[in-house]
Design goal:
14% of the residues lie in helices and 46% in strands. It has 123 residues and is mainly beta. The longest helix has 10 residues.
Length: 123
């Protein structure tokens, strides 16, 4: 369906109200912890990543760049303000990645933020 077809079906005033309710400009989201602990190959671990300063429910928390070690993942369940970095790494090294989050903008400003993390995996 094209944008033209949608605009014929939804009155322009409704589209304007929807756009205004999803405005941007809220304070940026922040994250904790500031740094991740060092972990060991073959040893399971769990770290909670928390998002702060959100005025609305969090829409998602995800890895947007970099790479996690094999055996490690970031798990988010909506509408929590936390995600879990967990797993059993099966390779050593230093892994840099960026975690981002956004909040829904319904009834308030859309917010977003990101944080660079480094996970050190020792033998």
């Amino acid at each position: 369906m094209t944008g033209r077809a949608i605009s014929r079906r939804i009155p322009p005033l409704v589209l304007l109200i929807a756009a205004l309710s999803c405005s941007t400009g809220g304070d940026p989201l922040s994250f904790s912890p500031d740094a991740l602990p060092t972990v060991r190959v073959g040893v399971p671990f769990t770290v909670t990543i928390a998002v702060h300063n959100n005025d609305q429910s969090i829409g998602d928390i995800l890895v947007v760049s970099g790479a996690l070690p094999r055996g490690v993942s970031l798990r988010y369940t909506s509408p929590q303000s936390t995600a879990t970095l967990e797993g059993t790494p099966d390779e050593t090294g230093t892994f840099g990645f960026t975690i981002a989050a956004y909040s829904y903008g319904v009834g308030g400003p859309y917010q977003q933020g990101k944080k660079d993390y480094r996970l050190e995996v020792e033998p």
